């Protein structure tokens, strides 16, 4: 379940604990009640109008690397 | 204008007034509404005759007639409103037979309490759309329903047109080997409407693609009179239209996902709501099916017209007694593009 | 769209497909259960199955909160509207699910019931604030991903003294469901369904972390890979499961590291623990009564519990006669085993939740499976 998408934080409203996020060109206001230490330009996972977690750029990069290596790793195994 | 003023002692208060039951009763109030609002904007020779019908001569040939009811909510949205939608929608229905649209009629069902300022805005928009398209509204009707029984205004437009000789376009003419084309990006109108609705708010740079397609069709048909099928993918989107055509013609289809134009903002909005752009309404686009050897020519002509700039060949018709519409995904697998079941609702799952 | 498009790349898909093809042992079958509806959806939408070798099968699990909600609870929601004149706020997913007496929320809405679709619990709170003279009830469903947003709304309503707002809580727990499947007699003794490994749900795990799955991996000796829900994530995770099975390992691995950690989202977990507590048992459609599998609102927030505010008798509703949803949800029967499938029950006229929800096995099979059976040549063959 859980349609959740990574979106970029473009503005923060600290008073209301909300943020404006951008998914491509679409913008939406969402609640930050479930996360902490979010800064502008961070990426967060959004679901039903809330940010659930931050998306780690380093881990995203590593995962993409894993995909690319999958083909190579097989070549190495006997 | 002074002739009108003399007939009605007090001018219609469009700025602050609203529709009431007398406007539908057939009496003086209704006559005033018609004259000072409808006729004033939609103004043309036939309408000015003030008959209950419009009489005109037509050239000999095959005629086409189509009708459409418009119940869109909200009434006003980026890129259009119920008025322009009503004009474009029916012009397009007529044009999809390859016909040149001639005239429109418009029936209004007004809800008691609907602000006259909004009504004027709708009618003025219809007038602009009709004038720009060269297809006048020549006759109409107005009724009023009690408050709570309407959504502000419902509009039904009927259009007639004349089919040029040598043109025979119909939904059951698709044949295996034919090419499938669309005239531009999918999903713009429906996403615009959803973003204007109450419970789903987001700022996008999308607007409705509502537009009259008859001139684009005229160009296409002039270049390739043997076009097999034309249809505008309105409610239910491209997927529904293609399934309809597949069933009517007794064929299957294979599409390429990467070839279907979708604006990035529409893709993003659909991701957010869990919707599929293929099932979302379009109001200014068409689907064309033609023989494979004609596809390139049709595409060129399409792309030369302002409304067809993003036109693309998106797939082909195949033999298939089951009538499936398949699609090669951008990912490399394949999936079925089935009929829309019920209404596409945003989902959380 | 960053972090989305990169995970759908066609070239990487091909590479992963080749890697999986080389990794599988041709003499064995790999049945991998994806518990999460989002995975089911990704698999069908992108045609991931087409890129898998034939001995790797996806088994669809009951990870669809819409599908597992018993009819009686929807009947309760309808009663709130019809008998208590509340404004019922609900996510879009629930609107078309059939309840008793041929009703659904959508039909009740069409007949004049005040039912409003919302995208967020914040929308429901706004409706309550805008309608002070009416009772507003939020129909809360979902697994652990969707529970924290309900917790936030309940706390905010309590703090703000929003007296006309309450929540009808139907939140359920993933680990309990997985346990139930793994313990089911069909699996343990009769061997009629065989599940070799699990794709752990993406976003439930972002909240609860990967730790809760360690118990299953150990107890039931099956590998779990927490998988992201983009198609490349699913494929990479399949590769990781295949490797574990080949090597005889049964560990919890995390493919979705960009969002999931071992501990999960502590802030969200704390909020949920503040507002909700475990029900002793809860009925799941298809799984029957499952102990400690669902949540209810704690006494300290009891004022916002719709079940306490309104008289809501437990309704023992049964599925439409002939509907095999319960068996299909457990993977024991296939959609084509159901007599209603394709005859009375179609996406346009769904009889049970498996056909309504886009992740339901029957809805998925209706398009995709029907095609596979039809003998129609595959798109890719005819395009070649």
What would the keywords be for this entry?
heterotrimer, B: alpha+beta, 60s Ribosomal Protein L30, Chain: A, Phosphoribosyl-aminoimidazole Synthetase, Chain A, domain 2, 4-stranded mixed β-sheet, C: 384 residues, alpha/beta, 2 domains, 4-stranded parallel β-sheet
Characterise this structure.
The complex is a heterotrimer of chains A (78), B (349) and C (384). Chain A is built from one helix and five strands. Chain A has one helix at 57-76, and strands at residues 5-13, 18-23, 26-31, 43-47, 50-54. A five-stranded antiparallel β-sheet of chain A has the order 3-2-1-4-5, with no helix packed on it. By secondary structure, chain B is α+β, with helices and mostly antiparallel strands. Chain B has two domains: 7-163, PurM-like, N-terminal domain (60s Ribosomal Protein L30, Chain: A); 179-336, PurM-like C-terminal domain (Phosphoribosyl-aminoimidazole Synthetase, Chain A, domain 2, Alpha-Beta Complex), CATH 3.90.650.10. Chain B has helices at 2-7, 28-42, 45-48, 82-95, 116-133, 188-196, 214-223, 237-249, 264-273, 295-304, and strands at 62-70, 76-77, 80-81, 100-111, 137-145, 153-163, 179-182, 229-231, 252-256, 287-290, 312-318, 325-328, 334-336. The longest helix of chain B has 18 residues, at 116-133. The radius of gyration of chain C is 21 Å and the shape is globular. Chain C is α/β, with parallel strands linked by helices and 384 residues long. Chains in contact: A-B, A-C, B-C. Chains A and C meet through strand 1, strand 4, strand 5 and helix 1 of A and helix 1, helix 6, helix 7, helix 10 and helix 12 of C.
